Amino acid sequence: MHFTLVTLCTCFNMFVGLLALYFAIIGNPLAACCALCFSVVFDACDGFLARKWGVASEFGAQLDSIADYASFCLAGGSLAYAWTAAKASGAFSAFGIPDITVLIGNSFVAVCTSNLGIVSQVKHLFHGIFCGEGFPPLQGGFNYLMLLIAFYYICLGGMRLARYNAKTDSLCPPSFFEGLPTTGAAAILALLCIGDYLTPEPVNFLSPAAIAVLTCVLGSLMFCRLPYPKLTKMSWIPKWWFALPFVVAVFSIPLAVYAVCGLYMISGPIYYFINKKKQADTESDS
To answer: What is the largest CA-CA distance in the chain?
Structure first.
């Protein structure tokens, strides 16, 4: 019974990933983001329940890898394209006219002063998901470039999963992922897309070109061997730190999203250089 429930969680991950792919194809990136977030939840549940109930198996590991490729690589790459197309249309914003009274030099700090409250932000988001019209595809040479970038993201995500399945020798300690996990990359794409939608135009800094660069960076981070901390193993961080993003989100969802995603993306290089310095100090002492 427990094994069946865990398998169902993995299958639901694939199903919601298919929905994310569908929404991205029809040009509704916000709905795709919502589906991807549910995929992340199901992916976390199947692993947690398999370990808790002692039903982890090679079959489950392979099925989970297939689900991850469908949901986080294929759907993630498609979301990147759909988000770029939406931005290029010039209408991807919850704010037709910015609902702000103070702009501090048109800087990112103005995001803090521009929110309408948590209820209004969520209302704008749900309106965009369920009532937003599909955005047209990109045009010209940028269309083909973005297709190649999405393909790059999908390929490197697949190679990261293949490396994990092949059980190659990891250069990272057990409490770290080797490279940005595919789940994390897709979650970052989805959350940044939502944050971008809720950011007023005068302070919106994510252009279509910036999204293309971000997609390349996320693809490269998935395949690299930088150490990324596993959230469940970060016992050295005070528990109340994990509540901070939710507190910030009450005032500004975009600010909370940018902070969390940005910090996790740079955590890999930071840990790498810290460990490299420790190794150099150890070798010099010996």
So the answer is: 65
Confidence of residue 193 (pLDDT cuts 50, 70, 90): very high
User: How does pLDDT run across 220-233, given as a tens digit for each residue?
Assistant: 999 999 999 988 77
> Which residue do the tokens 């800087």 mark?
107
CATH code matching the domain that covers 2-285, chosen among 1.20.120.1760, 1.10.390.10, 1.25.40.10, 3.40.50.2300: 1.20.120.1760
Residue 177: phi, psi to the nearest 5? Answer: -80, 150
Backbone angles phi and psi of 97, in degrees to 5: -120, 125
What does the domain layout of the chain look like in residue ranges?
2-285
pLDDT digits (tens, 9 = 90+) for 120-161: 666 766 666 666 567 888 989 999 999 999 999 999 999 999
Q: Which one of 92-96, 110-114, 202-206, 259-263 scores highest in mean pLDDT?
A: 259-263
Long-range contacts, stretch 101-108, CB < 8 angstroms, 24+ apart:
103/202, 103/203, 106/202, 106/203, 107/203, 108/203, 108/205, 108/258
| DSSP per-residue string spanning 182-209 | HHHHHHHHHHHHHHHHTS-GGG----HH
Give me the phi and psi of 117, to 5 degrees please: 100, 155
Contact at 8 Å (CB) between 202 and 103?
yes
Percent of residues in the chain assigned helix, strand, coil, to nearest 5 = 75, 0, 25
The enclosing H or E element of 169 equals none
Pairwise CA distance, residues 194 & 87, whole Å:
12
